[in-house]
From TrEMBL:
Residues 100-379 form the MRNA cap 0 methyltransferase domain. mRNA-capping methyltransferase that methylates the N7 position of the added guanosine to the 5'-cap structure of mRNAs. Binds RNA containing 5'-terminal GpppC. It catalyses: a 5'-end (5'-triphosphoguanosine)-ribonucleoside in mRNA + S-adenosyl-L-methionine = a 5'-end (N(7)-methyl 5'-triphosphoguanosine)-ribonucleoside in mRNA + S-adenosyl-L-homocysteine. Keywords: Methyltransferase, mRNA capping, mRNA processing, Nucleus, RNA-binding, S-adenosyl-L-methionine, Transferase. One of its GO terms (cellular component) is nucleus. This is mRNA cap guanine-N(7) methyltransferase 1. Its EC number is 2.1.1.56. One of its GO terms (biological process) is 7-methylguanosine mRNA capping. GO terms for molecular function: mRNA 5'-cap (guanine-N7-)-methyltransferase activity; RNA binding. It is found in: Nucleus. It is an enzyme of class 2 (transferase).
Amino acid sequence: MARELPSWTAIEHLVDRISAQRIRARRLLIFVGSSDDPLGATGISVHIVEMKRAHDIDESATKRLRRDGVNDTQGKEIVRQVADHYSARSNQTREQREASPIIHLKKLNNWIKSVLIQIYTQRGDTVLDMACGKGGDLIKWDKASIGYYVGIDIAEGSIEDARKRYNGETDHARGRRDFGFPAKLICADCFEVDLEKILKDDGLFNVCSVQFAMHYSWDTEERARRAFRNVSAILQPGGCFIGTMPDADVLVRKLRDAPELEFGNRVYRVRFDEKYSEKQFPSSTPYGIQYEFHLEDAVDCPEWLVPFQCFKSLAAEYGLELVFKSNFHSFVKQYCQQKDFADLMRKLGALGDSAAGDAITDDEWDAAYIYLVFVFRKSGNKPPRPRSSRGTYKIISPDEVIYIPQ
Ligand SMILES: C[S@@+](CC[C@H](N)C(=O)[O-])C[C@H]1O[C@@H](n2cnc3c(N)ncnc32)[C@H](O)[C@@H]1O
C-alpha cells in the first residue's frame, strides 16, 4: 500500500535504532523513492511491507549474530531463547483464554497476584513491574489505585502487547476508557542493565513486583546479584518487593520421588539434565542449575532452580529483609479465610464449580504446588510517602517505548 514519504530524519532514526540496538523489527520499511528524493533511488512510490514477528523470519540473522559472537556465551543464548519464547506468545482472545487447558490455574495465579498487590500496595504508590510480560497485571494495579507504573520486559513482542493493553487496544481492556495512572514501558534485560541509571528521573519506587520471573536471573551469580541490586536501588526504604516463582524445595522433592530425571502431569513437565543424576544440589553451587520446563499453553523454556535459602541470603546483602514466604497451596488456604479474598476467588472462578463439572483439575492444583510467593522489605526508615502525581493517563505510542540494547 502506498503511503507518504517519511522524513529523512525519521528514516535515519529508525535505521539507527534497528542496527545499533539490534531491535528485531516487527515492521520492515522498504522505500522506493523518486530519483530526486534524499534516498536517491529510482521509482516513484513508497511501500511499507509488514513482517511477521521478527523471530519467525529472522532466525538465520539471529544465528548469524550468535556465530559472530554477539551472543557468544551459552548463557546469553538461553536468555535470548527465553525472550523469544515469550515474545512469540501473542495475546489470546477471550474465547481462546477460556478454552485453555489450564484456565483455572491461570485464574488462580491471577488471584494470588491480586491478593499480593492488594495487601502490599497503597493508593498513589509508584510501581516497578520487572518482567511485566504483556501487562497482564495492569488492571490489578489500577484496582489498587496506584499513582505511576513502569513496566520492563526483555521480550519485545510482550512489551508491544503491554503497550496495546495499556492503550485499551485489546479485548482485555474492552469497555475500559483508560487507566488511572501514567505509565512507561521499557524493553530491556532487567537482570543485566543498571536500572538505577535508566530510571534515574523516576525517583524511588514504593513497590517492585517480579511475577513468575525472578528465577530467570539465577543462571549466574552475577545476574542474580544484578537483579537484587536493581530491586534494591530503585526501592525507597520501607518499600516492598513482591513476587512469585517456582518453589525449589518442591521441585527437588518431586525430582527425588521420580524414577528418572523427569516428572510432571498432564499440564506441566520438568526435566533435569543427566548431570544431575545424583539428584544432589550442593549449597556451595546454587546458580545455573538448569531444568526444562513445559507448562501447557503457557511456558516452554529452560529455567533455573532457585534455592530459597540462598535467595534470602543474597537479598539480605542488598538490604532486602524477608517478610513472608509461602507455597501457593498454603497461600490459598491462608487467604481464602478472608472474606474479601474468598469473594474475589469466587468472582474469578479460579477454583471453579465442582457441581457444574467445571472445577480446577487435580493436575492444575498439583502444578500450583510448584510455585511460591515471596515478600521482602527494603531496610531503612520509611520516608513520608510521596503523593505527588506523576501526571495523568496518556496512551503510549510505539516511539515512546524505550529500548535498551541487549
Ligand atoms: C511467566 S512470564 C510472567 C509475565 C508477568 N510478570 C505475569 O505475571 O504475567 C515471565 C516473563 O519474564 C520475562 N523475562 C524473562 N527474563 C527476563 C529478563 N532477563 N529481563 C526482563 N524480563 C524477562 C519474559 O519475557 C516474560 O514476559
